[in-house]
Every structure is written in structure tokens, then in C-alpha cells.
Amino acid sequence: MVGFDPERTVPLPHYVYGACGASAAFISRFFTQPIDVCKIRFQLQIEPIKRGEVASKYQGLNQAVRLIVKEEGAGALWKGLLAAQSLSLVYGLVQFASFEKLNKALWTLNLTDNPKNPLFYFLCGSLSGVAATVAAHPLDVVRTRFVSQGRQKVYESIFQSFGMISRQEGFRGFYRGIVPAVIQIVPYNGASFAFYSKFQEIFRSYSGKKSSESDAVESLTCGFLAGAFAKTLIYPLDVMKKRLQVQGFEAGRKGFGKYVSVDSFRHCITEIWRLEGLGGFFKGYSPSLLKAAFATGLNFYCYEQFLRACTNHYSRQL
After folding, report:
1. Is the pTM of this model over 0.85?
2. Contact 72, 79 (CB under 8 A)
3. With CB atoms 3.0 to 4.6 Å apart as the test, which of 78, 107, 192, 240 could cross-link to 180 if both were Cys?
């Protein structure tokens, strides 16, 4: 049910798509937050993520989870959850509402006979991703900083963090890392929707399914694969985005190893290459791949379930 379906007989108010997207993002975020916390810690660590590396605070996923729980308590695995959930709500709302609007517009303009064409899904997904990223980026900056700080806290609440960033860094502080964020979201979001459409096509060709309705196995499987493939394409940009988002936040990074100051997207690339080599651009890839796959699968599945419930509700009113 993702995307415009000309055979859909029950018209839905446009805000319903945004509400379903926000609700789906909220649920997937809650279940994948612990993986995201580990991923961000890995991405920000300059030292190698390698078992037995004495200078490295985090040496692997299992070790990182145990260390975080030991030093900060189990609740630290959901650190920054309020900011993360706020980010997810805004992002999910804008993403799905704009995607559905764009997808319908392309079909209405007779630009395609198949509104589920992966190429058009890529285009609509890319544009909706840019809109959602720009709308939600300040919350992404705050979320990253909450997750990256240890026991010595700089930020105590989401409202305090917004006030501190505003006073100390100005408007620019809320959009640190926006360049790699936008550059990465175009292929990532576009590929997520395009792969989802393509994998659904493949899934249905093997299962022989004709109905436009997606079941749980189809949504979760196709979403899982779509998230994994899309994340692999853009991962280095995600690392650079995170490094730029914690600039000006050195106090919160004490005790996490070396801190490297960078002042631009280009400078970030050169410093990662100089200090860490090619592997630096793939720090935290394993947990990130898991998180992207599970989050995308859950996101599409929950979105379709919420949309189906809303469709049934509005059909009873006709």
C-alpha cells in the first residue's frame, strides 16, 4: 500500500499519510534505538574498532553494549530517545506525506502508467527525503549529541539543549552536517523506496500473489532488504554527518578517546582519510546495517498496517 494506487477506492485525507508515517517511525525507532546508540558511538570514535585494541574504548558490538550498560546503566541504550522520537515523528510525517503527494502527482500528470515504477519511487523518495531531512535536522543534531555524551553530561534535557545550541552556536549549530545529510538522503531515501518496490515485484513474482495488499512477511522481508541495500550505498556520508554534528561539543566527548576538530565537509573527508584511512568511512557499519534493515522493514510494515486500518475506518463512513 506504499505509494499511489489508482485502484484504491477509498479516498483518504492527505494528513492521514503523514500521521501513519509518523506513527510507523515512532515504533521502529523505539525498537532500534539501542543499535543506533552503538552505531553513533562507533562512528564518532577515531581509534580503530578492533578487538584487543588497547587504545579503543569500543572494540565491537557485544563489548560496546556491555561497556555502555556497565558505565552508564541499561537506560543508556535508549539515551536521547526523546530527541530521537521527536526526530522520527517529524521525519516520518514529512517523508510519507510528501512521498504520497509526489507519487500521485506523477501519475496524475501522465508521466507514468505505473505509479509503482522503481524509477519513480526513487525520484519521489529522494525529494521526500530532502524535505524530511531539512525539517528534522535540528532534532538530529540534538539526538546525536545526547547519544554521544557520557556520564559527564552537557545536556540534561531537549529544551536545555536547544537553548544552549542557540546561545553558543546560533542558527548554524542546528544545521551542522546538513550538507552530507542531504547528499546522503537523496540516494538513501530514493533507493529505500525503489528497492522496496523492486523487491515487492520479485517477491510477488515468486509467490504468485495478485492482491495489492501486502502481508507481514512481504513488508518485513522487502523492507529489510531495501534498508540493507540502501544503507550500504551511502554509509560513508552518514559517518561524516555524525562527525560534523558533534563539532563544538568537545566537552560532551570527554572520555571517549581522541577528538578531531573539522570545519567543513571537505575538511572532514581529508581528516578521516589522514587519521583512519578508508576504514574510517565505515566505522560502525555492522550495527548500522542491522539498524537500517530492521528499521526500514518495521517502518514499511507499520506504515502499511496503519494505512490499512485508516482505510477500513474511512470505508465504513462512505
Report:
1. no
2. yes
3. 240
